[in-house]
Each structure stands twice: as C-alpha cells, then as structure tokens.
What does this fold into?
Amino acid sequence: MPRASSSSSCRASREAPQRRPLRWAAPSTAVMKFAGLAGGIGSGKSTVAARLVERGAVVLDVDQISREVQQPGQPVYRAMVARWGDAIVGPDGALDRQAVAHRVFADHDELAALMAITTPAIEASIYARVAAHHDTDRVVVLEAALLARNPRLYGIAGLIVVDVPEELAIRRLVTGRGMLERDARARLANQPPREARLQAADFVIDNSGGLEALDEQVEAAWAWLGSLPDGRLEARPSPAGPSPPATGAG
It folds into this structure.
C-alpha cells in the first residue's frame, strides 16, 4: 500500500504552511472520487480531514452527522431518551454524549441498541450528501473511525488510515481532551485494533511526528486521491451486513 514518508524528528510547524492549488491536477471529467478516512480515536484524523478540505476535498464527518441526527426533537433523540432516560440528557436539553458513552461502550448489548437506533438516520444522511456530488469532479472523503471494518463500505474506492501508536493516542486524549485514562482505553478497545486498520488501509499517514511531517504526507495523500478510480455510491448490505461506520456516541 502507499505509505507517506515522514520523520518523527521533524519539528512541529506553528506557521500555516503554504497551500498548493485546491483541485487535483487531472482533466475535468465530472466524475466523483470517493474515499474513506479512518483512524483510532486520538490519531488526528480530524486534523488530516481539515487539511484535505483546504486542498478542495468534501469531507463528510460521520461523527458530526451522528451529532446532527441526535439533536433535540429528532426521532433518534427521542428514541435514545426513551431507552436510557433523562440521565443521558444534559442541562441544556441536548444529549450528554459522555453519559451515553458510559452506558454503551462497556456493554455489547447496549452498544448494539445504540447502533440500531442511530444507523438508519446516519446512513440516510450519508447517502444524500454523497449523492449530491455524484456527477461532479469533487473528491468526497467519508471520515469514520470504523471504516477499517469494511474499507469498501458505500462504494469507497480507497481508504486512508491515520496511524499513531496506541499509547501516544491515549496520552493525546488525556492531555488534549481531558479524558480519564480508563475512558480513553475503553474507547480504543471498542474500535478496530491498530493492526486491523493498517491491514485495511490503502494509504497510511503516520501522525506520530510533527505538523511539517504531517503536511508532507497529506500532500502525498491528496495526489493519491486524484488517482483513484471513479467513485460510485453503493448501498450497504443489510441486515446481515458489516458494522456501520459510526457508533453515534463518538
């Protein structure tokens, strides 16, 4: 698989790097490129996603879509409160995602129940948003931690995996997000293992170094995205198909 070269000794850049033209250098054929972006929690995949957006990509963050379908008044919100009660509702009336996480990530049955509640609405939104770019020459990237379980989900033509050692990811979650170490480890344990992500990857970005090294790799990934086969949105096999790409409590 392509693997962007980097050096973990590179000094982190605190200045905005110069950007190249935002569209990939290929003839305009009005055919979408469709790829996935995965990585364990704390890997920095959202940072990579932001850099791809700067280069012209349309990034669909499945966790953000999950948040949207869980807004107060939405059917998903009502179903979740009906199952788990007001204990998962914060003072502002919105779902307390940490409270949801505490209830589902240590219990397989509760996690399955959450998936059953959230997945139909999440997938309907994914299909609509990808379909809007189907007859364009845009590069559409679906960002979802669990794509490693099915790297060709929805017709994705290639999967970028952002990789860091698990202990580094845990340190970032504790220091950067204020998570308890046990919670960080529990979240990692409910995601595909690092080895599975790397095996599923078509392109690996090593995010264990600094921002300069990361930007070099994102630039290489952007060129790789432009070389992918034409993208076609496909339905996910159901009901006995693979796990959906989000848990709804990211």
